[in-house]
Amino acid sequence: MEQQMLILIKLLISATLGGFIGYERERQNRWAGFRTHILVCMGSCLIMITSVEVAAINGGMFTADPGRLAAQVVSGIGFLGAGTILHSPSRIRGLTTAATLWIMAGIGLAVGVGLYWAAFTATVLSYIVLDYFRVVESKIKKVQTYDSWNIEFILTGEHDGMQGFFQILEQFELMTKSIKISPEEKGSHVIVEIKAPFEFEESHFIVELQRRLNIDTIRIKKNI
Fold first, then answer.
1. pLDDT in tens, 7-24
2. What is the rounded distance in angstroms from the CA atom of residue 127 to the CA atom of residue 124?
3. Stated pTM of the model
């Protein structure tokens, strides 16, 4: 009965710690949020408990290494983390959430083996990094205020035309560095170099262009 209560307490602690970090991710509308982090942390804890118990039960019969199951958690969590990573031509998103899932697995393993202080400290430090270091990260990013992009497209009609294009640039807070317009059979061939904020989302920009302008072909590339 005492052992069962200890297992229950460990699972409750791991669920609480996972929920604490999961709350921050859910608040930021990340793919892996509140429930996912709870399940990852609690599942890792359960695997560690099982590993320790199996080693204790079979220790007299053969050599049992309680770290073998734990090692599979550390490597296996990578598959779940990969599902939170989104890749676009200009950036990769979701790495921080993938990292939180990985550290949640580590925290769960720590709780499972009884290292409560280590698990609690890691949880608090993780929350501080995720929430409060966001300001520090934004200041670092502002060192490089603008990125340079090349946009090339064929404008096939007069619907809104170039006036509509410049309105979209203003909407996204983009600045024109150079522009070249040449007539073609299909319409006007437009090549524009712009300066964009670091957080510029090119996918949203392309959707807005296609929605408001008659565009046949569009290419957008970040200048490295």
1. 889 999 999 998 888 888
2. 5
3. 0.59
Residue 86: partners with Cβ closer than 8 Å, 6 or more residues away: 92, 93, 94
Task: Please state, in angstroms and as integers, the Cα–Cα distance from residue 46 to each residue in 4, 56, 111, 127, 129, following that order.
Answer: 12, 15, 9, 23, 26
Name the residue type at position 15: A
Within 10 Å of residue 66's Cβ, how many Cβ atoms?
A: 18
**C-alpha Rg value of the chain to the nearest Å:** 26
Beta bridge partners of 86: 93
Identity of the amino acid at 69: L
Please provide the DSSP assignment of 50-92 as one string.
HHHHHHHHHTTTS---THHHHHHHHHHHHHHHHTT-EE-SS-E
The SS3 of residue 178 is strand
Handedness of CA 14, 16, 21, 22 (dihedral sign): positive
| Ordered domains of the chain (ranges, CATH) | 2-140 (no CATH), 146-222 (3.30.70.260)
Q: Six-digit token pair at 150?
A: 């090349």
Question: How far apart, in Å, do the first and last CA atoms of the chain sit?
Answer: 63
Strands 188-197 and 146-155: antiparallel
pLDDT tens track, the chain, 224 positions: 678 888 889 999 999 998 888 888 888 777 777 888 888 889 889 888 888 887 776 655 556 666 677 777 777 777 776 666 665 544 566 778 888 888 898 899 899 888 999 999 999 998 888 888 877 776 666 655 677 888 888 887 654 567 888 888 888 888 888 888 888 777 788 888 888 877 777 888 888 888 888 887 788 888 76
